[in-house]
Amino acid sequence: MPAAGRFQPGVWVTGRWTGERFWVERLLGAGANGEVYLVRTRRGRAAMKVSSLAGDIALEWSVMEALRGGSYFPEPMLIDDVEGAALYFYVMEWIPGRPLPARLTPADAGRMVKLVAHVAAGLGLLHQRGYAFCDLKPENVLWCDGFTPPLRFVDVGGVTPFGRSVRQFTPAVDRAFWDLGTRESDPAYDLCALALWCVTAWVPPNLAALASQPPAVRRAWLDRALRNFPMPERAAVLRDVFAGRLQTSAAFLQAWQHPPLRPSRMLGHAGHPRHAGVSGGTSASAGLRLPPAGKRRHDWTDRVMWGAVASLAGVAAWAWGTWLHWF
Ligand SMILES: Nc1ncnc2c1ncn2[C@@H]1O[C@H](COP(=O)(O)OP(=O)(O)OP(=O)(O)O)[C@@H](O)[C@H]1O
C-alpha cells in the first residue's frame, strides 16, 4: 500500500482549464515522476496522475494519445492543470489490478508461464506501433482477474519510439546493466527485460554489489541463475533472448509456449547485433536446432560409437567361428 500522497482521500481537485472536478478516493501509487490517485469523475472511476513537472505530464499524455485504442496501456481521458496549485495532471482509465509479484517460488512455475505469455502478447501490440516499453518492471504490469486481457501495463513514462535512447529504466531489468546489449529502444530491449524479470523473480540479485563488479561478473551471475532456473527448457528460451537469438515478441511467444526439449548450456552472443550480424529473429532456438534432414553431419562421437559397434561384431564373429571350428 503506497504512503500518503499530496492529496488526501475525500478532497476535490478542479481542472483549471476544463473546470472538471474530481473526488479523490485514494492513492494508487507513487514514483519518481508523480502520484497516481483513484478518483471519481462524472463518468465513473478513473486514475489521475499528478506531478509538479508539466513537461513530464505533457510527454506521457502525448504517448498515451499515440497508443490510444488497442494497446495494453490505459486509455487517456483528459489533461489539465490543478486549479490553485503549480501541479499538472492527466486522467486515464483506471486499471483495477494487482502488480505482478517481484518474487516467485517454484510453486508459481505454471503461473509464471501464463503471465509471461500475456506480457509478451502485450509487448507485441506495442511493438507493432513502433514503441518499446523500456521500463518493464513488475510494478508496471497489473494482473486483472476476470478481465480480457487479464493483464495490463501502466506508466508510459519510459515508452520510447524505436531507435531512440531509453529514458527511464530499472537496473534489474535493464539490458545494458547486464552487459547484454545497448540501452536503445528496440523490441529486443523489452524481451530482455521480460527474460530478466523471469530470472530475477526466482533468484534475487544483490544489485548494489553487482553494480560495482565488472560486466563479466554480472553475466556469470546470470548464467548461474539460469542454471538453477526451475524450468530448464524455458531457461533455454531465456538464454536465446539474452544471446539476441529471439528478437521479436512473436518469435519469443512461439518459443516460450513450445520450448525446445534440451537446454542450451551457456549464455552466447552469436546472434547479438552488438557482437555479430542481426539474426532474423524468427528462430525459436537457433543454438539448439538440428541441421536439416539429409545434411546432418556426424561428429566424432558418432564415429567412435560406430567403430566400437563394428569391432564388437568382429570379435563376436571370431569367437563363434573358433568355437564352431570354422577357422
Ligand atoms: N491507470 C492506472 N490504474 C491503476 N493503477 C495505476 C494506474 N497508473 C498507475 N498506477 C499505479 O501507480 C503506480 C505509480 O504510477 P506510475 O508508475 O505512473 O508513476 P511514476 O511516478 O512514473 O513511477 P515510477 O517512478 O515507478 O516510474 C503504478 O506502479 C501503479 O501501481
TrEMBL record:
The keyword Transmembrane helix applies. Keywords: ATP-binding, Membrane, Nucleotide-binding, Transmembrane, Transmembrane helix. Residues 22-327 form the Protein kinase domain. InterPro entries: Kinase-like_dom_sf, Prot_kinase_dom, Protein_kinase_ATP_BS. ATP binds at K49. GO terms for molecular function: ATP binding; protein kinase activity. Residues 269-292 are annotated as: Disordered. The chain crosses the membrane at residues 304-326. This is Protein kinase domain-containing protein. The lineage of its organism: Bacteria, Bacillati, Bacillota, Bacilli, Bacillales.
